[in-house]
Amino acid sequence: MSELLLRDARIQGHEGPVDLLIRDGRIAELRELRELREPRESPESGGDGRHGVEELGGKLVLPGLVDGHAHLDKSLWGGPWVPHDAAPGLMGKIRNGQERRPEFGVPNADFVTALLENMTACGTTHVRSHVDVDPLVGLGSVEAVREAVERHGGRITAELVAFPQAGMLISPGTEALLEEALKAGVETIGGLDPAGVDRDPVRHLDAVFALAERYGAGVDVHLHDGGTLGAWQFELIIERTRVLGLGGKVTISHAFALADADPDTRDRLISGLAGAGIALASVAPNRGLLPLRRLSEAGVPVTLGNDGVRDLWSPFGTGDMLERAMFQAKGTGPRDEDIELALDAATYGGARALALPDYGLTVGDHADLVVVDARNAAEAVCVRPRRSLVVKSGRIVARDGDLV
After folding, report:
1. Cα(201)–Cα(212) distance, rounded to whole angstroms?
2. I need a labelling partner for 300 at 20 to 30 A (CA). Which of 46, 208, 261, 265 fits?
3. How far apart, in whole angstroms, are the C-alpha atoms of residue 122 and residue 56?
4. Looking at residues 119-142, what average pLDDT do you find?
5. 29: exposed, middle or buried (Cβ count in 10 Å: 0-12, 13-18, 19+)
6. CA nearest 386: which of 309, 318, 290, 316?
7. Sheet containing 60-63: which strands, arranged edge to edge?
8. Do the strands 188-192 and 26-32 form a parallel or antiparallel pair, or are they unpaired?
9. Within 13 Å and on the Cβ side, how many CA atoms surround 160?
10. CA 64, 361, 21: angle at the middle one, nearest 5?
11. pLDDT averaged over the chain?
């Protein structure tokens, strides 16, 4: 039995400081300060980050950060600096990524490992990563990301999305490779702009949802298409989700059409999303910020993600979800409750969207958490202090910005 005691913790919803006891990877007890005994000695667990007492001195404890939309396979983190030279527009970035991957050995498990190290040190405990699947790379991206996650030895968990970055219908052979990825255990099937890229939204979505139904997979569709074209595709996804009974397993990423829509259309789409059990994913872009408060009121889960981090698409990004929450909060609003909505998308919202079981800071939840020197959630987002502790499955995996 392993036990880790966190003393003098600040947790939202508790008036005063509390002690938090972790036992065998789960939160076992939450009590008022100094009410809990110290963990019993356990020689077999000594020195592995699962046993002992940590004095937090009133620091804030948050649930482990969730990155609900990443592209780990594309990253050049830890590798060479590559100036951005992609042609304008989505297709320009797609072509640049495909053409220059071999030049830098992408996908590269070493780059993915380095990025995951930084994400873990920043407090991310779970990530959903889209991984490119196409005739040029085959399942190489799946293999590289899996290898990198394995190297981390349980410090972070990952869900993969087989993603047709170069299109599916316009890229012959891709649909069969997507099926091979699902056969190989990839958890979610992805889609990409069924109209804007593949030019046949009905056929594209029929293929994606058929694969999901056949293999019991989730669905995550990148939908950059805006305006009425994007809104129509929302309706197609809502319809298929309802008919196939896939509520709780479908996500629309980016979802720019929701921001573009007039109020009546937006309300109708949000009602449809809520009724069908569809989540949304955002990367806090410069345009098309999702209406978090309206979505929260309607019960639509929203997850936040870093998207690509320092890759052939963009030189930006760090993998820090508190930074991403800050970007979201700048568009959501300056009040504490607005900032908390942005953080919710990086924590509880992500857990709801990705259907992570037993997530949170109550007794019985998995002990995935991050400790920061902040007085409340809003300060944590705005200041983004170094993560004092990161705990995954009851084990300390990072301290003061370094892995342990």
Report:
1. 16
2. 208
3. 17
4. 98
5. middle
6. 318
7. 60-63, 369-372, 387-392, 395-399, 402-403
8. unpaired
9. 26
10. 105
11. 95
Q: At what angle do helices 109-121 and 140-151 cross, to 10 degrees?
A: 50
Sign of CA dihedral 112, 118, 121, 122: negative
Identity at 249, one-letter amino acid code: K
Per the structure block, which two tokens stand in for 7? 């003393």
Tokens of 48: 């592995």
pLDDT at 43: 46
Per-residue pLDDT at 45 exceeds 80: no
The Cα–Cα gap between 249 and 212 comes to 9
Determine the residue type at 184. A
pLDDT digits (tens, 9 = 90+) for 25-44: 999 999 887 666 677 655 45
Residues in the chain: 404
The C-alpha atoms of residue 390 and residue 93 are separated, in whole angstroms, by 35
Cα separation, 8 vs 292, whole angstroms: 32
pLDDT tens-place string over residues 308-332: 999 999 999 999 999 999 999 998 8
* Parallel, antiparallel or unpaired: strands 157-163 and 124-132: parallel
Strand partners, 120: none
Q: What is the largest CA-CA distance in the chain?
A: 64
